[in-house]
Amino acid sequence: FMLTPGNPKWKQTNLTYRIIKYTTQLSETDVEAAIKEAFQVWSDVSTLTFTKISQGEADIEITFVQGDHGDNSPFDGPNGILAHAFQPGQGIGGDAHFDAEETWTTTSSNYNLFLVAAHEFGHSLGLAHSTDPGALMYPNYAFHDPSTYNLPQDDINGIQTIYGPSNNPVQPTGPTTPTACDPRLTFDAIATLRGEILFFKDKYFWRRHPQLGMVELNFISLFWPSLPDGIQAAYEEADKDLVFLFKGCQYWALRGYDIEQGYPRVILDYGFPSSVQAIDAAVYYRRKTYFFVKDQIWRYDNQRQSMEPGYPKSIASLFPGIGSKIDAVFQQNHVFLFFSGQIYYTFDLGAHRVTRVRRSNRWLNC
Amino acid sequence: FPVPGASPKEKNTRIVQDYLEKFYQLPPKGFRSARQNSSSVIVEKLKEMQRFFGLNETGKPDRETLEMMQKPRCGVPDSGD
After folding, report:
1. Does B54 sit within 8 Å of A133, measured CB to CB?
2. C-alpha pair distances (Å), A333 with each of A192, A195, A286
3. Alpha-carbon distance A80 to nearest alpha carbon in chain B (angstroms)
4. Which SS3 state, helix, strand or coil, does residue A265 take?
5. pLDDT in tens, chain B (81 residues)
6. Cα(B45)–Cα(A358) distance, integer angstroms
7. What residues form DSSP beta bridges with B59?
8. What ipTM was predicted for this assembly?
9. What gap in Å lies between CA B12 and CA B20, rounded to an integer?
10. Distance (Å) from the alpha carbon of A72 to chain B's nearest alpha carbon
11. Are the C-beta atoms of A307 and A290 separated by less than 8 Å?
12. What is the C-alpha to C-alpha distance for residues A35 and A121, in angstroms, rounded to an integer?
């Protein structure tokens, strides 16, 4: 996180706000709800309180304007710059301006007012932009489901540096952004997708480019807004150009950017007994799908569309040398790559043995 | 006759210019001294932006840098007041 140069802050912690001008794209009720929740993101983790007033001058004045609106920072029409806000201080200090030419929503469609407002109020309170791509104060817009939004730890650290800890007996904490080269990094799930490799972690995934080997970190919600965080298993059925993602008893089918109609479904579809509540890892190979659950393996026949008899078996009985619980697995050429903790094992399907053991984050160019 | 509108290179130059002026305090074209006009200032500002976003600090408007510059964002600068 970064504080605004000069470390401006409000002397008082009970601040007032007033919505001067609304957008015509949302009802006033929706705007007021989004603004209220956006302030609550900050009051939940600090000693700050925010009171809405309808008359007189407020500390933080909120307005929807377009183009050149007299503050020497003109807006630029749809997209591009969405909004801006001023550091704590008198007059325009603390005020937040939203580009009236943007499409403001209360959904995952661009742009969700709650998320942009919560970011701008960070500036109104004295925060500058953060370099943490998972932080609320990161400059670029990224959608997250407001109903499950948790202020990231980076932003909590920032606001508490300015205004001190919250009065909560237990200090609130938030998600931290995984860093590729953290030696403790483990993966939740891995799948190939049209030649790329997707490494899932919390609410993120890294995309590894097939030829260039370039790796970029993205939010899951950037590509699939309705998917949950914390995907647990994933596999690509390349014959059908589908990727299946699993969390708990549910699973989704993706075709590129789109989630197939009729999902999520339940894993009972595959013929699992109800005792199986979640899947640790999955991989598809030659019209069979291998499911890893704790130290056991199930094999599904994609042609007959049923679980094969004689399963589950122990993982070690089919893949000697692969013993403990699997976090993730994917197939490349004639090998399965099993990831368990910070280590991955290359299992040669022809030689039927482990041929290599390496650190997991090598796949992220570490 | 040339196709109206800027060539891709000119378009990219404008994207870079505009972004660095807005968010990295590159002095607007008309207000730059000879030194500031030199391409080295732009290279330095580009590297500052690439460092902020964790991109390769090439000092050049490469693909990933241009992509980042075209993402919707907050209007508050990333450096300075």
Report:
1. yes
2. 12, 11, 11
3. 5
4. strand
5. 445 566 777 788 889 999 999 999 998 876 656 655 567 889 999 999 999 999 989 999 999 899 999 999 999 999 876
6. 39
7. none
8. 0.88
9. 12
10. 11
11. no
12. 9
